[in-house]
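User: tokens in, sequence out, please.
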């Protein structure tokens, strides 16, 4: 064939790795693909095992913390505690020496014979509960009967009656040698280690007769607001931050920083200055 008869088109060069139809994948490529698949399967199995191990560890840790806390409850306080450990990995938290968040629930806790519902959130908690906790925020709820029992225990005569944001309690006074009963309506105010009952109204009763003596409440009672020391019922360092009153019960919010949860610390109560 002459040069004139030759095809002037450029010759197409096929890539070396191009595999013609019907040809098998080279053994090296098959081994490489299978290796990646095996590696992915191994990683998936390891990840699944770590998740299972963390779930098991979390359950064990929660039970151990609950048992330890129940054993460390101070005298006069008893009940079962449900523990929930937050955070991504319990194992990682244990290795770091601090649990990010631990939530406690004790819906049937008994304090000095009165049932209360307690919820506690702990942050920066040592795994063995052998050191101070970074911060503790607690909320305690009690119904009217429990509040009445606790107030009587605190020395408030006649118990209390709960209203919308206020409480009513009875006081006995003598006016010109005549014993009278005064029903005082007061607003409770949280003051850290004490709860202050600020009188807002008073009613003087003698037999079936009652007289509104709100304007003379200080003179009739002969004293200022009633201060109830709550520190002596709380672990040393715990403070009352807020009180919410309804007709059905009371909610008290408390907090503490650097408080340890061992038996000695929980049994050591505070005092009022």
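Assistant: Sequence out:
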């Amino acid at each position: 064939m002459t040069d004139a008869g030759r095809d002037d088109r450029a010759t197409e060069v096929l890539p070396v790795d191009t595999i013609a139809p019907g040809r098998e994948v080279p053994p090296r490529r098959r081994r490489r693909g299978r290796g990646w698949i095996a590696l992915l399967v191994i990683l998936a199995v390891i990840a699944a095992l770590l998740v299972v191990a963390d779930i098991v560890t979390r359950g064990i840790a929660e039970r151990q913390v609950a048992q330890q806390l129940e054993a460390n409850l101070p005298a006069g306080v008893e009940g079962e505690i449900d523990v929930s450990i937050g955070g991504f990995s319990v194992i990682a938290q244990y290795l770091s020496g601090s649990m990010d968040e631990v939530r406690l629930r004790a819906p049937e806790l008994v304090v000095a014979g009165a049932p209360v519902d307690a919820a506690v959130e702990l942050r920066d908690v040592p795994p063995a509960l052998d050191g101070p906790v970074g911060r503790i925020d607690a909320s305690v709820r009690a119904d009217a009967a429990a509040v009445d029992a606790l107030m009587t225990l605190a020395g408030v005569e006649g118990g209390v009656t709960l209203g919308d944001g206020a409480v009513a309690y009875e006081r006995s006074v003598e006016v010109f040698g005549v014993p009278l009963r005064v029903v005082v309506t007061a607003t409770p105010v949280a003051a850290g280690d004490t709860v202050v009952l600020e009188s807002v109204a008073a009613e003087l009763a003698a037999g079936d007769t009652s007289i509104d003596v709100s304007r003379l409440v200080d003179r009739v009672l002969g004293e200022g607001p009633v201060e109830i020391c709550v520190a002596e019922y709380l672990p040393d360092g715990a403070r009352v931050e807020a009180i919410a009153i309804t007709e059905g019960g009371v909610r008290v919010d408390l907090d503490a920083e650097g408080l340890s949860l061992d038996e000695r610390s929980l049994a050591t109560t505070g005092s009022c200055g």
